[in-house]
Amino acid sequence: MKRLVYLMGILLWLSGCASRLPQSIEQAPGESIAIAQVQKTPQSFLGKEVRWGGDILEVANTGDHTDVLVLGRELSKKGEPVVDGQVDARFIARFAGFREPAVFPQDKRLTVSGVISGVEQRKVGEYSYPYPVVEVRESHLWPDPRPRDEHRYYYGPYYGWGPYYRYPWWGYPYWW
């Protein structure tokens, strides 16, 4: 009986490690379509499946949908926008119904999968910019990346190995 309890505990623990990403986010569609391609010739890409992601710029709610403006970035194999990755272009992720803007804060990373429904002209400053629109089927907000630890491999001057052996006395006993 104890073995069964231990086995169930291990299985529950391992299931917590399983991926919770939607499959359409985790796996890229067959055809890779760049945002800039859709900006140039939108009619040839209408109805195509895409997986795009990047940094959230703005959220706008209308009567029947929510538009999330995203600065598109290159994606990793799992669909995560690469921090400081190459910028492709801006796009609109269109969600059906109301979405709380607080859920989509500025500079948060978002990946969406869905269908291209067209291109809308909007202003970026004084410039008229063509935004490809994706009708979102599934989405995933990514957690903020952990900051790098600057002193991760620093062992300090008082360890008895490495280039700092007996530093700062260099050959003198510590009691002098």
Q: Mind sketching the topology for me?
A:
Blueprint: H1 2-15, H2 23-26, H3 35-40, E1 49-61, E2 65-73, E3 87-96, E4 109-124, E5 127-142
Parallel strand pairs: 3-5
Antiparallel strand pairs: 1-2, 1-4, 2-3, 4-5
Question: Care to describe what's here?
Answer:
Helices cover 14% and strands 36% of the residues. It is mainly β. It has a five-stranded mixed barrel. The longest helix has 14 residues, at 2-15. It is globular. 21% of the residues are buried.
| Strand/helix succession | HHHEEEEE
Structural class: mainly beta
Number of DSSP-assigned strands: 5
- Report the portion of residues in β strands: 35-45%
The outline comes out as globular
Specify the biggest β-sheet.
Answer: 5 strands, mixed, barrel
Radius of gyration: 25 Å
Weakly predicted, low-confidence segments: none
Distance between the termini: 65 Å
